Amino acid sequence: MILSLNFQAVPIEMEPVAYAVPFFLLLIFIELYVNWKEQRNLYESKEALSSITMGLGSLVINVVMKALAFAAYSWLYQYRFFEIGWHWWSWVLILLADDFTFYWHHRLSHEIRILWAAHVQHHSSQTLNLATALRQSWTELLYKYIWWFWLPLVGFHPLMILMMMSISLIYQFWPHTELIRKFPKWFEFIFNTPSHHRVHHASNVRYLDQNHAGILIIWDRLFGTFSEESKEEKPVYGLTKNITSYNPLVIVSHEYKDIWKDVQRAPSFSDKLKYLFYPPGWSHDGEDLRAKTLRRQQGL
After folding, report:
1. Beta partners for 191?
2. Model confidence over 66-95: pLDDT tens digits?
3. pLDDT, mean of residues 294-298
4. What are the C-alpha distances in Å from 261 to residues 110, 258, 267, 281?
5. What confidence score (pLDDT) does residue 7 get?
6. How far apart, in whole angstroms, are the C-alpha atoms of residue 6 and residue 294?
7. DSSP output for the chain
8. Which residues pair with 297 in a beta bridge?
9. Fewest beta carbons less than 10 Å away: which of 43, 129, 235, 299?
10. What is the C-alpha separation between 95 and 167, in angstroms, rounded?
C-alpha cells in the first residue's frame, strides 16, 4: 500500500493562535500602560524588542514545522489503537494527554543539556512580562512535535492535537507577568498561574527547574517539581550565567557554542556524552552546578 503525506497547512479556522494575536498585543499594551503609570520597571526596551523578534522568527519556523507535524500525525493516525472521535469528553482527555506530554517535554528540556540549549532561549530575558512570552525558541520547534507522536496512535485526530497544543500555547501567554499576584487557593492548586510561572523563570537556587506546568500545575505537584513562590525570596529572572547580547542569533546559538567547547575539552567519550545529556551545570573537572546539587547543598 502506498501512503501519501499531506503537507498542507493547518486551516486558519482550526488555528486558535491566529485569533489570539490581537488579544496578545492588547494585553501587552495594557501592561505597558500600567508599567508606565506605576513606574514598575517591568520592561527593558532592548529585551522586549529581542523577545518580539524571537516571536516573529518562531512564527515563521512554526508554519513549516506544524505542516510537517500535521502530515506525520495524519500518517500515524492510520495505525491508531482506538477510535476516540470528536466528543465533549474527547476534549477533556486531550487536555490531560497534551498537558501531561507538555510537562515531560518541558521538564526534560531543563534536565537534558542538549535540549536545554534550545529551551534556554526562552529563559534568557532578565525581565518577566508579556513580551517575554513571545521569546520562543527557534530550534526547539525543529523537534518539539515529536513528543506528541503517541497521541495520534492512541486515537486523537491530528487536528484535535494541534488545536489543543495551540490552546495550551495561548493559555501560557498570560502567566508571564508580575502584575497579577495570587488567585484563590483552589485555582493556584490546579492551574498554572503567574505566581507559579514567576518561579519557573527565576534563577534563584530555590526555584531552579521547578514548575514546568503548561495549563495544569498538578503534574509538578505529583512528580516533585513544584515550588511555591516565597514572599521572603523575590524571583530573580534570567539565567544563572546571563548573556549580555540582545542579538537573536546570539540568543539562539550561545548555549550550543558552550556545549561544543565543553565537548571538545572532555577527556573521554563518556564525558562528551555527559556534556550533551546530563543536566546543565555538570562538569567533569569543575564544581557541580546542577540545580539538584545546589539545592541539596543549601538544604532546600
Report:
1. 216
2. 999 999 999 999 999 999 999 999 999 999
3. 92
4. 20, 5, 12, 14
5. 44
6. 48
7. -------PPPPGGG-HHHHHHHHHHHHHHHHHHHHHHHT-----HHHHHHHHHHHHHHHHHHHHHHHHHHHHHHHHHTT-SS---S-HHHHHHHHHHHHHHHHHHHHHHHHSHHHHHHHHHHH--SS-STTGGG---SSGGGTGGGGGTHHHHHT--HHHHHHHHHHHHHHTTTTS-SS-----HHHHHHB--HHHHHHHTB-SGGGTT----SSBTHHHHHHT---PPPSSS---BS-SS------HHHHHHHHHHHHHHHHHH-SSHHHHHHHHHSPTT--SSS----HHHHHHHTT-
8. none
9. 299
10. 9
Rg of the chain taking only CA atoms, in angstroms: 20
- The residue-averaged pLDDT of 147-174 equals 96
CB contact set of 256 (below 8 Å; sequence gap of 6+): 117
- The pLDDT, as a whole number, for residue 18 is 75
- CA distances 126 to 171, 184, 238, 242, 275, Å, are 22, 28, 4, 8, 25
Which of 94-98, 207-211, 269-273, 285-289 comes out lowest in average pLDDT?
Answer: 285-289
The domain locations on the chain are 12-223
Classify 163 in phi/psi space as left (phi over 0), alpha (psi -120 to 50) or beta: alpha
Output the CA torsion sign for 62, 17, 193, 224: negative
For residue 279, give the amino acid letter: P
Q: C-alpha cell of 33?
A: 500602560
Handedness of CA 32, 201, 22, 136 (dihedral sign): positive
Statement: residue 161 has pLDDT above 80: yes
Residue 2, pLDDT above cutoff 70: no
pLDDT digits (tens, 9 = 90+) for 222-232: 999 999 999 99
